[in-house]
Specification:
Shape: globular
Distance between the termini: 40 Å
Number of helices: 4
Helix content: 25-40%
Largest sheet: 5 strands, antiparallel
CATH topology: Alpha-Beta Plaits
Mean pLDDT: 87
């Protein structure tokens, strides 16, 4: 199976500089321990002070990490995005990718299972409509 290459950017914002120190480094390190995920490049920027990072904050602190990974399969890519929550994600390669039915099924089931977990954490029940409808 050909590996997928993803670029992901993570942005963290906090009201205090100390809250960010080491957080994204730890996040990237945890990503690197995942099965079927290989970090091929990562860069974590310095923490910087920013104005109005959030409607409730006049001054805050921001940090960005950029990571490139190779993953075994689209199902692993979906699970990685769900579990690690990048702010942005882009598939960089390969240009063509063929997926077996089993891989597609596993990817969709991962999304369905995650949505079910979110529904259980809230008021319960089943999600039956989109919020914007």
């Amino acid at each position: 199976m050909e590996k997928l290459k993803l670029w992901m950017a993570f942005e963290a914002v906090a009201p205090e500089r100390k809250a960010l120190e080491g957080a994204l480094e730890d996040h990237v390190e945890a990503l690197g321990t995942e099965e079927r995920v290989e970090i091929i490049e990562s860069e974590v920027d310095e923490v910087s002070e920013v104005e109005n990072p959030h409607p409730d904050m006049d001054i805050g602190y921001s940090q960005i990490a950029e990571v490139r990974v190779k993953l075994d399969g689209f199902d692993r890519a979906i699970q990685t995005v769900i579990n690690y929550g990048p702010t942005y994600v882009q598939i960089e390669g390969p240009d063509d990718y063929e997926m077996k039915l089993r891989e597609a099924q596993e990817a969709l089931q991962n999304v369905a299972s995650t949505m079910h977990q979110y529904a259980q954490m809230g008021p319960g029940g089943v999600l039956i409509s989109r919020a914007n409808e």
